[in-house]
């Protein structure tokens, strides 16, 4: 599965970023750039990162994603991860 990132706005005003494919050192920059752009341009209270279609995430990407989440939080936006598969969730938990 090819890596891709898309975004949409829910009725509540929260932004959903949908991620597909493998998230690793070569693709995490694109995801963080998308999150940063959304926070800078729209200033939403909440960004949900939907990981349902993520097939793999490496520990380097988890660290970069955590840094990106902290930066968004400093700007007043809460970033939440949702719908991670069991395998992706294990990597997220082990890397936290």
Automatic annotation (TrEMBL):
<protein>
    <recommendedName>
        <fullName>STAS domain-containing protein</fullName>
    </recommendedName>
</protein>
<dbReference type="InterPro" id="IPR036513">
    <property type="entry name" value="STAS_dom_sf"/>
</dbReference>
<dbReference type="InterPro" id="IPR002645">
    <property type="entry name" value="STAS_dom"/>
</dbReference>
<feature type="domain" description="STAS">
    <location>
        <begin position="4"/>
        <end position="96"/>
    </location>
</feature>
<dbReference type="Pfam" id="PF01740">
    <property type="entry name" value="STAS"/>
</dbReference>
């Amino acid at each position: 599965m090819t890596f891709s990132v898309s975004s949409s706005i829910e009725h509540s005003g929260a932004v959903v970023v949908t991620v597909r494919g493998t998230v690793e050192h070569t693709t995490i920059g694109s995801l963080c750039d998308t999150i940063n752009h959304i926070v800078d341009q729209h200033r939403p209270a909440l960004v949900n990162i939907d990981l349902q279609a993520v097939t793999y995430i490496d520990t380097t990407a988890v660290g970069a994603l955590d840094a990106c989440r902290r930066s968004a939080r400093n700007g007043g936006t809460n970033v939440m991860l949702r719908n991670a598969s069991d395998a992706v969730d294990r990597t997220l938990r082990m890397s936290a």
